[in-house]
Amino acid sequence: MIEPQLVVEGAGVLLRRSVSPRASNEYDPFLLFDHFAFNNPLEGPIRGFPMHPHRGIETVTYILDGSVNHRDSLGNAGTIGPGDVQWMTSGRGILHEEMPKRGSSGNIYGFQLWVNLPAAQKMGQPRYQEVNSSTIPVVEKDGATIRLVAGEVDGVRGPVTEIAASPLYMDVKLAPGATFTYPIPSGHTALAYVFEGVGEFSGEVVESVSMVVFNDDGDQIEVKSDAASNGVQFMLIAGAPFKEPIVPYGPFVMNTVEEIQQTIQELRNGTFIK
Question: Is 264 helix (H, G, I), strand (E, B) or coil?
Fold first, then answer.
């Protein structure tokens, strides 16, 4: 289990970080998981994430409350609100900006996941999938309410497709006393970020806010919600590892030091965006 750490990113944004990019790459293909919430007045003005570059990864933003105004060097611009997802494949390079805005509740709440790209796709064409909340299927099953962003549940597929890591990304809410099971292919990395309530995850009682790391030798995960509780809600994340060496450097994740040096040189000489 991982205890999220408070970190400051962007122009002064306070985040809970469970996973960060490291050369050891323990959670391959997942590089980073942040939980952002601007709901403490002591945090001061919302500064957000001004225009910044990415290369070699995919960034996934999922909003629960509030909204994020975004724009990028591909010419995309818009707003993602509650229940919306932005899945951006940076490929060889993209510049983008994300500026949060409080919702009617006064809150901003959501998650950002970074997914690695295999070496063969790191310098590929940047791609962008913006998914409206209304197009994300909701599966009701045995006391579980599942919002399916990527992957499949009982023949229902999430709207995000053609991702190299074959990811599963879903928001699962269990009613009190419910049990949720899901098959995970052998060898895949599987994580659960518990952000509301308390539940039993593969035999271990976990309280929010925590990140659960499942063993990769099981054929399924099991989550139980105690009948005396208020239920539990978590993000379930799984994917196929690439098993390649990585060199993370800020917003860039490549396979060699030389590739990172080349990226920095392109930023300096103005050739980063093709």
Answer: helix
Residue 254 lies in a domain: no
CATH code where residue 42 lies: 2.60.120.10
3-state secondary structure 234-260: EEEEEECCCCCCCEEECCEEECCHHHH
Q: How many domains does the chain have?
A: 2
2 plus 81 within the same structural domain: yes
- Check pLDDT > 60 for residue 45: no
Q: How high is the mean pLDDT of the chain? A: 90
Distance (Å, whole) CA 93 – CA 91: 5
Question: 67-117 pLDDT, tens per residue?
Answer: 888 888 888 888 899 999 999 999 999 998 888 887 777 778 899 999 999
State whether 187 and 219 are in the same domain: yes
The answer to which of 86-100, 161-175, 184-198 has the lowest mean pLDDT is: 86-100
Q: Are strands 57-65 and 85-89 parallel, antiparallel or unpaired?
A: antiparallel
Helices and strands, number each (H, E), in the chain: 1, 24
Q: How many Å separate Cα 25 from the centre of its chain?
A: 16
Question: In whole angstroms, what is the distance from residue 144 CA to residue 173 CA?
Answer: 6
In terms of residue numbers, what domain contains 74? Answer: 1-134
What is the DSSP secondary structure assignment for residue 84, as one 8-state letter? Answer: -
pTM of the model: 0.92
Q: Could you give the percent of the chain with pLDDT greater than 90?
A: 68
Question: Tokens 């860039």 belong to which residue?
Answer: 252
Distance CA 65, CA 130 (A): 17
In degrees and rounded to multiples of 5, residue 269 shows phi and psi of -95, 5
Dihedral pair phi/psi, residue 264, rounded to 5°: -65, -40
Report in angstroms the alpha-carbon separations of 234 from 79, 152, 195: 24, 17, 6
Q: What is the pLDDT of residue 23?
A: 97
